[in-house]
């Protein structure tokens, strides 16, 4: 099955017009014949059969290992953070596609389990990706709470490089991208405001404590960013000015208690809406 075929299956699997497969049909979930219910129309039954057929084709293209498993990784759709890694078999992937909840196969219990079925910290899956060799899977979704049983946002918070330096602080450090490492640093500065009153405050702390200074810097940096276009400056200059805008804007978000993930959630919600319609809706709401 080619990549275009896989994309077609994914689009079908996540179409809201297709009915959810029953969680009670776990054994060979995609192979069992569907029985008509009194509340189902012939069109609904045909839709479910079509959905099952597409899922079967997808499952057949996965290179399952000798135990019928493949690595399944859950990733935060907004932050890019790797949330956890488990294993999936045919039934686990089929259940994930139908329920949109990240579902794995427990090797110790020899059974399916859905992340959050005990803690209620589900991972709501928006898409599923298969790697180029078709032997590993990514569940791309939005977590409803901490993913790790320790209460951490992800299961990856132990740096191997930190472990090799015993003298270094052994505090947990989430595996974060550049953007979220910056956000974490800003929030650390915010949490430590006033901790050392005799210490000269960092630039970030000054901004956090002075709203007028912060807003003036955002306006200043935004103007300088625009000037790189108007004055035909080099691309490196534009990137530098954009970094300044982003940093200062993230400090403002921290002052307001807003995370970048909240911003990206808004952006993602706008993907299926035209810019003109979105702008009109905002004007009506105001």
TrEMBL record:
Pathway terms, separated by semicolons: Amino-acid biosynthesis; L-histidine biosynthesis; L-histidine from 5-phospho-alpha-D-ribose 1-diphosphate: step 3/9; Amino-acid biosynthesis; L-histidine biosynthesis; L-histidine from 5-phospho-alpha-D-ribose 1-diphosphate: step 2/9
Q: Which domain of life is it from?
A: Eukaryota
Catalytic activity reads: 1-(5-phospho-beta-D-ribosyl)-5'-AMP + H2O = 1-(5-phospho-beta-D-ribosyl)-5-[(5-phospho-beta-D-ribosylamino)methylideneamino]imidazole-4-carboxamide; 1-(5-phospho-beta-D-ribosyl)-ATP + H2O = 1-(5-phospho-beta-D-ribosyl)-5'-AMP + diphosphate + H(+)
According to UniProt, the name of this protein is: Phosphoribosyl-AMP cyclohydrolase domain-containing protein
Domain Phosphoribosyl-AMP cyclohydrolase, residue spans = 84-157
Family per similarity comment? In the N-terminal section; belongs to the PRA-CH family. In the C-terminal section; belongs to the PRA-PH family.
Name the Gene Ontology biological process terms: L-histidine biosynthetic process
Q: Which Gene3D superfamilies match?
A: MazG-like, Phosphoribosyl-AMP cyclohydrolase
Q: Which InterPro entries match?
A: His_synth_HisIE, HisE, PRib-ATP_PPHydrolase-like, PRib_AMP_CycHydrolase_dom, PRib_AMP_CycHydrolase_sf
Keywords, ordered alphabetically: Amino-acid biosynthesis, ATP-binding, Histidine biosynthesis, Hydrolase, Multifunctional enzyme, Nucleotide-binding
Which molecular-function annotations from GO does this UniProt entry contain?
A: ATP binding; phosphoribosyl-AMP cyclohydrolase activity; phosphoribosyl-ATP diphosphatase activity
Note the HAMAP family from the entry.
HisIE
């Amino acid at each position: 099955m080619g990549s275009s075929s896989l994309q077609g299956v994914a689009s079908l699997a996540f179409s809201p017009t297709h009915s959810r497969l029953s969680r009670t049909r776990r054994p060979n979930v995609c192979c069992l014949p569907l029985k008509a219910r009194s509340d189902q129309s012939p069109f609904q039954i045909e839709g479910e059969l079509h959905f099952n057929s597409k899922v079967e084709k997808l499952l057949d293209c996965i290179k399952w290992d000798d135990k019928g498993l493949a690595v399944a990784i859950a990733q935060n759709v907004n932050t890019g953070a790797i949330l956890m890694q488990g294993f999936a078999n045919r039934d686990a992937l089929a259940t994930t596609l139908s329920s949109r909840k990240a579902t794995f196969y427990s090797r110790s219990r020899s059974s399916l389990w859905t992340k959050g079925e005990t803690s209620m910290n589900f991972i709501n899956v928006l898409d599923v990706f298969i790697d180029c060799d078709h032997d590993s899977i990514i569940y791309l979704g939005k977590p409803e709470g901490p993913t790790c049983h320790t209460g951490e946002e992800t299961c990856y918070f132990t740096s191997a490089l930190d472990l090799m330096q015993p003298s270094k602080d052994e505090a947990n450090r989430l595996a974060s991208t550049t953007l979220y490492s910056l956000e974490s640093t800003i929030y650390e500065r915010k949490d430590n405001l006033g901790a050392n009153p005799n210490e000269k405050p960092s630039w970030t702390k000054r901004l956090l404590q002075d709203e007028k200074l912060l807003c003036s810097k955002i306006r200043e940096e935004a103007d300088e960013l625009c000037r790189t276009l108007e004055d035909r400056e080099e691309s490196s200059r534009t990137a530098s000015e954009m970094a300044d805008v982003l940093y200062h804007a993230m400090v403002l978000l921290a002052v307001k208690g807003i995370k970048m993930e909240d911003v990206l959630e808004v952006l993602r919600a706008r993907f299926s809406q035209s810019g003109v319609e979105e702008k009109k809706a905002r004007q009506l709401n105001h």
